[in-house]
Amino acid sequence: MIKLESFETSAGDFRVKVPELCLGAGSLTAILGPNGSGKSTFLTALAGLRSYKGAYFLCGRDFSELNEKERYGLIAYLPQESRLGLPFEVGYVVLTGRFPRLKQGSYRQEDQALVDFWLREFELLPLKKRLFSSLSGGEKQRTLFARAMVRGARVLLLDEPLNGVDLKHQHAILRSIRAYLQKEKALCLMVLHDLAMALKYADYLLLFKEGRLSFKGPVAEIDEKILSQVLEVRVKFFKKQGNVLVSTEI
Amino acid sequence: MREGSLFILLMVLLLLSLALGLRFGAVELAWPLKGVAREIFWEVRVPRVLLAALVGVSLSVSGLFFQYVMQNPLADAFTTGAAASSALGAVLALFVGAAALMLPAALLAALLGLLVVFRVASIRGRLLPVSMILAGIVVSTFSSAAISFLKFLSEDAVASIVFWLMGGFQNASWEKVAILEGVVLVSLLLIWPRSLALDLMAFDDETARTSGLNIDRLRKELLFLGALLTAVSVSFAGIIGFVGLIVPHVLRLLGLYQAKKLLVFSCLLGAVFMINTDLLSRVVLAGGEELPVGVFTSLLGGVFFLYLLLKRKRELYVLD
Questions:
Q1: Do A44 and B206 touch (CB under 8 A)?
Q2: Which of B201, B205, B206 to mutate to test the interface with A (most CBs of A within 10 A)?
Q3: A133–B318: do the CB atoms touch at under 8 Å?
Q4: Does B192 have pLDDT greater than 70?
Q5: Tens digits of residue pLDDT in A129-157
Q6: Cβ-Cβ contacts under 8 Å for A119 (sequence gap 6 or more)
Q7: B177 in helix, strand or coil?
Q8: Residue in B217, B224, B189 with CA at minimum distance from that of residue B111
Q9: Do A83 and B193 touch (CB under 8 A)?
Q10: Which fold has domain A2-249?
Q11: Domain boundaries of chain A, sorted by first residue
Q12: Cα–Cα–Cα angle for B288, B293, B297, rounded to 5 degrees
């Protein structure tokens, strides 16, 4: 679904290079790496917010040839930090995620139904009529996450989407994302800092360090050594009843 | 309150305000109208009430536009400094003796002021309300000082602007009504089909862009139309502060949040509000003297602004 060849992008003087990458449908890909390693820069470039060099194919089409409506019908992007400057109800905030999929001048019944579906998935339905600004940090983040999901996109680009979200909802959300990816044959790239979550839910890992993609591969292929090296902490795996537990220390 | 009943209520209030505004004034007219009274009614009172209504609409709508551009509900022609800078433009045109160029000069100056405020308030795609207010204060203060300086330089020529700048509709005419009506209609017709896109502008730029919105273009259009509405209003009726802040705010307190609804109801409430404050300014002093209407709105606006800052800040905005 996403195919990159000698892809390069930059934020000021900082360059991020990905020589080659091919990500298929149905997989949850976790992006890990220290702060300032280029994860967000990479994600914003994929989202079309930064210029890039090299080739970038999205669902078999050259990204640079897609217009805005086509791009954001296919992609849903959730920035690391969002801001909403005017008061809106939670339900409407989520509904605006349907904007690039609009066929006529107004939202329709099916858009509303999708909003209700994702509000329910993220346990936000009781808050539907509340003002977004009156929510707690974690609730806001879940609302914005739901706003990204309601797009019905083939490719989800999520930058630390679980920031401030409680553990219970982290698990519930990641479960429902996996179900969505399988059902819609979609692809999700997600920046995460929680290694345990990444190992539990992701199929595929991308590790960034100093602007370079230093590892790409299925979760099963990752070992303690590479992780320790990239994340600059001592990583240890413990296998217990088929689960991999992970411990980290400095 | 349901929107339908609010709409009906505002329509009734509008008709009532129009009737009151036409009925009362500095001169008591004898009905049925004959001779001079008839002339006063058609050439003074009717255009005055209509101009008040249109200025109310145009300030409310421009306030809404600025709120979407600046991504916060505290923006209006007054707080962004657009009103003051367009007044400076108009005064400058008067000062050099080019009264015919008043409107274009006011528009240009308003755009310049807005550009400064926007640049100062915008930090990496996020517009911070506090920086916007501060930048607005700077632009307003600078413009007022420049106007004072020009007044000082030319005592006679610009002396009459003192009263005009305080805001009022005493110079209303059918020509002004027609021009402002055209500007208001064009602005509304241009923006109305994109009211869903307006709502997206309330998000940070990255979110708005990745929702398929061409934010730069819409922002430019809104800035231009907002500046145009402000410039024409200021040229015709002086600086009438806070209307664009109060009207959309009251509507939001009533539970209207979407641009589609805010646009419609701001027009109605803006007209009602302005007709009545103008009426008040005409009749409050005994003996036919007039208060500048800007004095009223600023008094009201000041108190309202304080209330917002004290009571509603957590609910309505993040002043980060």
A1: yes
A2: B206
A3: yes
A4: yes
A5: 999 988 999 999 999 999 999 999 999 99
A6: A90, A91, A94, A125, A127, A128, A146
A7: helix
A8: B224
A9: no
A10: Rossmann fold (3.40.50)
A11: 2-249
A12: 140
Q: What domains are defined for chain B? A: 3-316 (1.10.3470.10)
pLDDT tens profile B39-81: 888 998 999 999 999 999 999 999 999 999 988 888 999 999 9
Average pLDDT of the segment spanning B121-144: 85
Chain A positions with Cβ closer than 8 Å to B: 44, 47-49, 68-69, 71-73, 75-77, 79, 81-89, 92, 96-97, 99-100, 102, 105-107, 131, 133-134, 144
Whole-number Å distance between alpha carbons of A156 and A135: 24
Closest approach of chain A CAs to the CA of B256, in angstroms? 9
Inter-chain residue contact A105 with B126, CB threshold 8 Å: no
Threshold 0.90, pTM exceeds = yes
A96 vs B contacts (CB less than 8 Å): 196, 199-200, 203, 211
- The backbone torsions φ and ψ at residue A14, rounded to the nearest 5 degrees and listed phi first, read -80, 125
> Residue A97: its chain B contacts at CB < 8 A?
211
Q: CA A205 to CA A185: how far, in whole Å?
A: 18
